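User: Let's play a game. I give you a shape written as C-alpha cells, and you guess the letters that built it. Ready? Here's round one.
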C-alpha cells in the first residue's frame, strides 16, 4: 500500500488545537497602527493590561495574547521573520503580517521593555528551531513515503505468490490495519480541524466586530478632533478679543491715572486757593471793622473842623482885638500889661488848639492813605 496520505495527515495534526500555557507575563499599554495613515498610533486599551507569551506544546508554536475585559486586543503568532524594535526607552513595536497591523507596547520602565524584547528574541529563535525541525521531519517522512512508493510496485502481486490463501491473507491484513489506523487518525484530525475552523471563524468574527468598533471609534475621534479644532479656533478668537479689550482697558487705566494726577494737582491748587481766600476773608473782616470806625472818625473830624473854624474866627477876632490893643498900647501902659498877660494866656490856649488840629489832620491823612 502507498503511504503518501501520511503527509496531509501531518499537516492537519499540526493545525490541531491544544492547551496553551503562559510562559511570561507583563503589563503594558497596547497600541495599533492607524490602518488609514499607517503612521499614527491608536490606543487599543484605556489603561495598562496584561500581555503574555503562550506556548502550544502540540503545535510547537508561540503566541502573544492580550485581553482587555472580554475583548482580545492582541493575538499574534510569533514567526522567525518577525522583529521586535525598540523605538524609545519605554516603547517597542513589531509587525504582524497575518493580522495586517503593527502592534506597539508602552511599558512603565526600561527594564520591563528590555525583558519583553529579550523574551521576544528567545521565542523567535524557538519558533525558528521548531520550523527547522518540522521541515526536517517533513522531508524525512516524504523521503520515507517515496521509498515506500517505489518498493510497493516492485513487490509481487498476491496472484503471483506461490502459496496458500491463508498466506495471502496474512500478507494483506497488516496493510489494511495500517490503512484503517491512518484513516481513523485522518478522521480525528479532520474533525478537530473543523472544530478549530469554527473557533477561528468565531475569533475572526470577533476581530471583525472589534475592527468595526475601532473604525467607529476612529470616526468619532476624528469628529471630536474637528469639533475640538473649531472650539480651539473659537477660543483663539475670544482670546484675541480679550487681549484687545485688555489693551483698551490698560490705555483707559493710563488715562485714568493721568486724570488722577491732574485731579490731585487741581485739589492741591484748590486747597491753596481756599487758604488764600480765608486770608483774604480775614483781611476783609479787618477792613470792615476799620470801616465801621471811619464814621466815628468823620464825626470827630467834623467836630474838630467846627472847633477849628470857631478857633479861627476867634483868632481873627483876637487878632482884631490885638490890633486894637496895639493901637491902645500907647494910650494905656497899664492896660497893655494886662492885655499882654491875657494875650499870652490866650496864645498858649491857641497854640494848644492848633497842635490838636495838626494832630487831627495827621490822623486824617493816615486814614486816607490806609483806605
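Assistant: Ready! My guess for every position:
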Amino acid at each position: 500500500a502507498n503511504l503518501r496520505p501520511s503527509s496531509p495527515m501531518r499537516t492537519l495534526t499540526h493545525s490541531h488545537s491544544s492547551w496553551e500555557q503562559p510562559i511570561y507575563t507583563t503589563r503594558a499599554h497596547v497600541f495599533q497602527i492607524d490602518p488609514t495613515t499607517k503612521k499614527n498610533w491608536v490606543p487599543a486599551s484605556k489603561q495598562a493590561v496584561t500581555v503574555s507569551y503562550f506556548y502550544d506544546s502540540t503545535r510547537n508554536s508561540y503566541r502573544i495574547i492580550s485581553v482587555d475585559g472580554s475583548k482580545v486586543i492582541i493575538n499574534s503568532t510569533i514567526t522567525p521573520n518577525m522583529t521586535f524594535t525598540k523605538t524609545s526607552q519605554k516603547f517597542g513595536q513589531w509587525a504582524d503580517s497575518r493580522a495586517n497591523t503593527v502592534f506597539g507596547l508602552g511599558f512603565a520602565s526600561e527594564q520591563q521593555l528590555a525583558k519583553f524584547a529579550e523574551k521576544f528574541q528567545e521565542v523567535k529563535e524557538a519558533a525558528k528551531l521548531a520550523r527547522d525541525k518540522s521541515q526536517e521531519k517533513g522531508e524525512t517522512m516524504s523521503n520515507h513515503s517515496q521509498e515506500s512508493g517505489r518498493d510497493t510496485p516492485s513487490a509481487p502481486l498476491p496472484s503471483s505468490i506461490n502459496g496458500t490463501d491463508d498466506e495471502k491473507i496474512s500478507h494483506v491484513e497488516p496493510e489494511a490495519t495500517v490503512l484503517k489506523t491512518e484513516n481513523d487518525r485522518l478522521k480525528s484530525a479532520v474533525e478537530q480541524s473543523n472544530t478549530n475552523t469554527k473557533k477561528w471563524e468565531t475569533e475572526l468574527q470577533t476581530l471583525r466586530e472589534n475592527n468595526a468598533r475601532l473604525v467607529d471609534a476612529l470616526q468619532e475621534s476624528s469628529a471630536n478632533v474637528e469639533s475640538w479644532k473649531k472650539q480651539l479656533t473659537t477660543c483663539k478668537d475670544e482670546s484675541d478679543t480679550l487681549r484687545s479689550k485688555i489693551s483698551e482697558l490698560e490705555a483707559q487705566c493710563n488715562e485714568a491715572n493721568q486724570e488722577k494726577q491732574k485731579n490731585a494737582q487741581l485739589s492741591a491748587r484748590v486747597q491753596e486757593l481756599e487758604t488764600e481766600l480765608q486770608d483774604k476773608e480775614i483781611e476783609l473782616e479787618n477792613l470792615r471793622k476799620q470801616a465801621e470806625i471811619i464814621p466815628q472818625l468823620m464825626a470827630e473830624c467834623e467836630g474838630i473842623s467846627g472847633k477849628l473854624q470857631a478857633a479861627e474866627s476867634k483868632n481873627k477876632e483876637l487878632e482884631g482885638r490885638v490890633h486894637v490893643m496895639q493901637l491902645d498900647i500907647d494910650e494905656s501902659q497899664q492896660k497893655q500889661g494886662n492885655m499882654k498877660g491875657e494875650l499870652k494866656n490866650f496864645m498858649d490856649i491857641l497854640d494848644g488848639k492848633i497842635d490838636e488840629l495838626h494832630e487831627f489832620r495827621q490822623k486824617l491823612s493816615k486814614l486816607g492813605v490806609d483806605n
